[in-house]
Design goal:
Helix content: 25-40%
Order of helices and strands: HEHEHEHEEEEHEEEEHH
Largest sheet: 7 strands, antiparallel
Number of helices: 7
Strand order of the largest sheet: 1-9-6-11-4-3-2
Strand content: 15-25%
Length: about 280
C-alpha cells in the first residue's frame, strides 16, 4: 500500500487555488528517508554534473547568473557541510535515480485528479531538491512549470509577485526566455517589494507556485531542504507558444497582447506558432 503524502484537506486547498493562485497546504514528506542530508549527498554523487547546480548563497535579489561564484567544495561536501558552507544548491531532475523516480511518481499521482481536469495531462514531470545554508538567497526569477514546493527541513520565506505584473517580468523577457535567449532570472528593483506577498514555510508545509509567478527566496537561520515537484501542461505549453509567436509579431513591428491567464487557453496563437515552427521558419523553443 502506497504512503499517502497529502490528506483530503490539503488536496481540497490545492484544488481551490490551482492553477492560478498561490496557496500553502500541509504534506507528509518531512520524514522521508530519501530526503535526508546523507541520502542527498549520495544523490549528488549519482547525478550527472549538469544536474547539480550550486553556488555561494549570499546573493543580491537581482544577479547575472554568469557572475555567480561557486564554492570550493564538491557537491556532496556542500550538502554534508551545509550548516557552514554558505551555499545554495539545486539537484535537478532527481527522477534520473530510480528510487527518486518512484517517489516523484507517487507524489504527482496524488495530485493528478486535481490537475488534469483544469490544465490537461501532466507532461514533462520533473523534480528538484534545493539545499541551502542559513540565510541563503535565491534571486528573483520565474519558472515555466507548474510547481509544488514542499519544505522538508528548516524554514524559508518565498516572496511572490503577480504573474500579470509586467513591470517585474516584461513581455519581451517572457518571449526571449521561450526562445532560449534569456535566463529565468529577473532584474530587481527595490520598488517591487511592496507588490510581493511573503509565504513562510516550515517542515511539512507546501506552496503552490503558479506558472511564471516571479519570486525570490530567503532562507531562515538554519539549513533548508525543499523538494520541488513540477510538470508542464497543455495550458502552460500553449502559453509558451503564444509568447514565442508574440516575439515574431513584435519583430514585425506589431504590439501583440500578452497571453491571457487561466482559464483562457491561448489556442489561436499557440496553433499559429506550432504551424510556423513545423514549417521551419523559427527554431523550436
Amino acid at each position: 500500500m502506497s504512503t499517502v503524502r497529502f490528506d483530503p484537506t490539503a488536496l481540497a486547498v490545492l484544488a481551490e487555488a490551482y492553477p492560478a493562485a498561490p496557496v500553502t497546504f500541509e504534506h507528509k514528506l518531512a520524514a522521508e528517508g530519501l530526503l535526508t542530508r546523507a541520502a542527498l549527498a549520495e544523490l549528488a554523487e549519482f547525478l550527472p554534473a549538469d544536474s547539480v547546480e550550486y553556488n555561494l548563497g549570499d546573493l543580491p535579489l537581482g544577479v547575472d547568473p554568469d557572475k555567480v561564484e561557486r564554492p570550493a567544495l564538491s557537491a556532496a561536501e556542500v550538502i554534508r557541510q551545509i550548516d557552514r558552507a554558505g551555499s545554495w544548491m539545486a539537484l535537478k531532475r532527481i527522477e534520473q535515480h530510480p528510487d527518486y523516480a518512484k517517489l516523484v511518481d507517487e507524489v504527482l499521482g496524488e495530485v493528478r485528479d486535481v490537475v488534469a481536469p483544469r490544465t490537461g495531462a501532466m507532461e514533462r514531470c520533473e523534480a528538484f531538491i534545493f539545499v541551502s545554508s542559513p540565510h541563503a538567497v535565491t534571486p528573483l526569477h520565474f519558472d515555466p512549470e507548474h510547481n509544488l514546493l514542499l519544505q522538508i527541513e528548516g524554514e524559508k520565506v518565498m516572496t511572490m509577485f503577480p504573474v500579470t505584473d509586467e513591470a517585474i517580468a516584461p513581455p519581451r523577457v517572457h518571449e526571449l526566455f521561450h526562445l532560449g535567449a534569456h535566463h529565468r532570472n529577473l532584474e530587481w528593483r527595490d520598488e517591487f517589494q511592496p507588490r510581493g506577498r511573503a509565504f513562510a514555510l516550515r517542515p511539512g508545509q507546501g506552496l503552490h507556485v503558479p506558472v511564471k509567478a516571479p519570486h525570490y527566496v530567503r532562507n531562515g537561520a538554519f539549513p533548508s531542504i525543499s523538494l520541488s515537484v513540477t510538470w508542464r501542461s497543455e495550458w502552460s505549453c500553449a502559453e509558451a507558444d503564444a509568447r514565442a509567436l508574440n516575439h515574431i509579431l513584435r519583430r514585425a513591428g506589431l504590439a501583440p497582447r500578452s497571453p491571457q491567464q487561466y482559464p483562457a487557453r491561448n489556442l489561436t496563437k499557440s496553433l499559429a506558432y506550432r504551424a510556423i515552427r513545423r514549417a521551419g521558419v523559427v527554431p523550436r523553443p
